[in-house]
Every structure is written in structure tokens, then in C-alpha cells.
Amino acid sequence: MSIARFWRETPRRYNLGGSKCGNCNTVYFPPRLVCPTCPQHRATIEKMVPFQLSGEGEVVSFTVVQDAAEGFEMQVPYVLALVRTVEGPVLTGQVVDVEPKDVAIGLKVKATFRKLREEGKAGVIHYGYKFTPAAAPASAAGPRGPVEPVRPTEATARDRAVA
Length: 163
Ligand SMILES: [Zn+2]
Known about the structure:
binds zinc ion, mainly beta, globular, 3 helices, 8 strands, single chain
């Protein structure tokens, strides 16, 4: 499958396109057709509208994966995190461009579009979102001192070369 075709067929993974209830304003990702939050589920069918998540959020839970599943061997250890987006939905994703020891609950991150894995010798490459530390605000140079530049690991450098 060509990459262009993969993009077209998985807009949700690529774009973080969710849905929003026009009645109670709850955002869902993946998108839902009815709002489970509203008491009258059926009445929300025509209220649900496409909603684009910004991809910004913060780490609420994470684990450092040492034993990778097939296709992920090149990337261990890597950080798999639950990220609560600013819009509400919690996403699961890999956190890259940061040493695992520097990932903490509360870390501000942003979703980026990256290579997820390669499949076998055919080299089918899947793309999707990963999280990187969000750009440090200007105030980050305050009491905690300047933020050290993050040196990309070998794996992420390879990702960039392909992305
Ligand atoms: Zn609702």
C-alpha cells in the first residue's frame, strides 16, 4: 500500500480527528456517533460534529517498555504513555525525543506524525502519532534553569530520515 493511500485510509490516526457533542461539548477520540455523556443519547446523533484535536496534552501515566513487540525491536527501551489531551480525550502513544528517565507525569507533550513500525521484509511502514515534549515556554528559563537540548536517539534519528 502506498503511503499516500495509507494516509487517505486512516485520516483519524493521522489527523487526530475526533468528534464533539454540540449539546454538552464533550470531545471524543476516536470519534463517536452519539454522545454517551448526555442523558438522551439518541438526541445527540445530529449534534455530533467532527472535531480536530490539537495533539497537545500532558502525560498522566507511562511505562518504559524494555521488551518490544515484533517490529518494535529497534526502539527499546521506549516510553509508552497515556496522554490527557487539552480537549479531554486520553490517548495512548509513544513518547520520543526524550530520555525515558526524563519522562514524568505532568510532562507537557505534543503529538507529531511519525513512523510507527515496519512490517517484515516487505517493509510496510505504518505511520501514526507519537508524542514529543512540547516546546518549553519562555518561562522555563526561570527557577529550574534552561532546558537542556534533547539529543535524538539513534532510533528517532532514523525515524526523521524516513518521515
Ligand atoms: Zn453530549
